[in-house]
Amino acid sequence: MSQAPFGRRQLTVTGIDELGAYRVLRAADPDGPAPDPGQFAMLAAVERWGGADEDRPYVPRAFSVARQRGGEAHFLLEDVGPGTRRLCELRAGDALWVLGPLGRGFRVGGVDFKGRRALLVGGGVGIAPLAILQDTLAGDVSVLLGFRDAARAAGAALLRDARVATDDGSRGHHGLVTELLAEELERDPHAVVYACGPAPMLEGVRAMCEQRATPAQLALEAGMACGFGACYGCVVPKRGGGYLRVCVDGPVVDAAELDHVDAHAGARA
């Protein structure tokens, strides 16, 4: 598991690319630790990040690493509030605070998964960690992605050869990405599922895989203030009692560790 150096580091933004309703923020990070697929980083703009009402918020935001290649780290953004809006406003040459990689990523190549087809299932901005995961996987890999509409479905370009579902039917399958997953598991149940997306989607994936005894790993998201497990702001209930801290016990957890996916533990789509 890759470990972040103690303390945040300042990076320079190299570009921000439009991808439909999303943005791909790229930052030069030639000396940063190579992240494992599924790990995340805490991001904050160096300028105008707290201090006056219009400069909210003070707390950094957690983002999955979408890719790290050629000395650049890539992050997928959607403007859904003051923090993400400020990050979306960054341009080449601007400074960015980064703390990461943090957390536990996807487990690949284990004996439990040997010979199984990999199914990558993503929803909304939750597609981000599946991009770097796809880059590392060999063998038979299928990608299933779900979005609200065509503008967000443009994000599917982040991955290769994806089947797409949209809530409004404007692109690909008219319906839920879990419907595509059900088709795939019906056709070939000998698979392993890697998923990240909104909580209802992750709960659908968890329940479906439990019913079929299909191993699954779920990348959760929850509100984080620190990224180190100190604030307990990101806890989710685990099977058998107790809690998991998404930032240190996850964000990727085995679906079997959960009775259900907590309502606040999904990527915002």
Please provide a written account of the structure.
The chain has 269 residues and is an alpha/beta fold. It has helices at residues 82-88, 128-136, 150-153, 177-187, 199-212, 246-249, and strands spanning 9-19, 22-28, 40-45, 61-64, 67-69, 72-77, 95-102, 117-123, 141-147, 162-166, 173-174, 191-196, 216-219, 235-237, 243-245, 252-254. The protein has a 7-stranded antiparallel β-sheet. A 7-stranded mixed β-sheet has the order 11-10-9-8-12-13-16, with helices on both faces. Helix 4 (177-187) runs parallel beside helix 5 (199-212). The protein is globular, with a radius of gyration of 18 Å. The two termini are 27 Å apart. The model has no long low-confidence stretch (mean pLDDT 91).
Essential attributes:
alpha/beta; Rossmann fold; Elongation Factor Tu (Ef-tu), domain 3; about 30% strand; 2 domains; about 270 residues; 6 helices
Assigned CATH superfamily of the largest domain: Nucleotide-binding domain of ferredoxin-NADP reductase (FNR) module
What amount of the residues lies in strands?
25-35%
Structural class designation: alpha/beta
Radius of gyration: 18 Å
Oligomerization state of this entry?
A: single chain
Q: How would you spell out the order of helices and strands?
A: EEEEEEHEEHEHEEHEHEEEHE
Number of strand segments: 16
User: From the coordinates shown, what is the CATH architecture of the largest domain?
Assistant: 3-Layer(aba) Sandwich
Spatial sequence of strands, sheet with the most strands: 4-3-7-1-2-6-5
Net shape: globular
Task: Provide the residue-averaged pLDDT.
Answer: 91
